Amino acid sequence: MSILVTGGAGYIGSHTVVELLQVGRDVIIVDNFSNSKPKVLDAIRQITGKNFKFYEIDYLDTEKLDKVFKENDIDAVINFAGFKAVGESTKKPLDYYTNNVAGALSLLNVMNKNNVKTFVFSSTATVYGNSTEIPYTEDLKTGDTTNPYATTKYFIEEILKDVYKADNSWNIAILRYFNPIGAHESGLIGEEPQGIPNNLMPYVARVAKGILKELSVFGNDYNTPDGTGVRDYIHVVDLAIGHIKALEKLEKEKHGVFIYNLGTGKGYSVLDMVKTFEEVSGKKVPYKIEPRRPGDIDMFYSDPTKAKEELGWEATHDFKQMCKDSWNYIDKNY
Ligand code: UFG
Fold first, then answer.
1. Is the CB of 198 under 6 A from ligand 1?
2. Could you tell me the distance, in angstroms and rounded to a whole number, from the CA of residue 167 to the centre of ligand 1?
3. Is the pTM of this model over 0.85?
4. DSSP letters along 79-129, please?
């Protein structure tokens, strides 16, 4: 019995495949390398000393996807195949709705046809939109989203709930990620954004390495302790382990829709990151204060209690370790 991982060569996907292989699961990766590189597959083999099946397929291609299900004995699917850049999604909404929503539908239809109904879905804290209640708990209202990327995730969550309502044999976990950073401790896999990074950590790491000149801090007049934006950063390996725990939960429960926040429950500011990164890297991270970035909110972090109680999952890497591992990856590979 195998776990199919779509987008398994990507940042969170590759870390999750490592954890799956390490707990002895058989893995099949489907990826089209739209935002990842083939060398990641070798890195996964190197870290784990284990092999897996790989198909270079766009998950929108239902015919090819169907063949993967026919050729293998698949009992669950974890879906990481999706576009994730907030800014880009406002410029290319059709690409985002097609790849994320139509892609998920393609996958769900093929799963349904092949009677595979156990599904772990990558969602995001941004489905809470402009919620003002902090920390975010899973029962907060969702859907007041502020960009097409977040809306695609919200739509897919709603689709999954309807699918379960119509057919109670589905077994679905929706995982709402907070801000994933860090890298595997080997430094062999990590985050590889295309072009100039939009997210804070990959930007800071490249400034420390001397690849980029200085960081722009988007706003220092927010209602936060030091005026800069506060987020709940989570180590990508903790996040990956969250998927294993969610899968185990589904295997135990047999059917249902289970929703969990995956975060640490702690918030750190932009300047906290600059300071901690300088400390762990021994490098300077020059920065300048710029105007607020449109669409940003001041502060949010998770309440991770539900995942702890129901999955027995808790983040174990602290903020310093996250910065250390991000630095290790950049320092080794650039
Ligand atoms: N920031 C800067 N300078 C930069 C980049 C970011 O000051 O160059 C600030 C932002 O203003 C924000 C914080 O750093 O206050 C974090 O920004 P990120 O872009 O790293 O992350 P976001 O919280 O905006 O969004 C990220 C992902 C989304 C995901 C969300 C989940 O981009 O895909 O986390 O919480 F949905």
1. yes
2. 37
3. yes
4. E--S---HHHHHH-HHHHIIIIIIHHHHHHHHHHHTT--EEEEEEEGGGGT
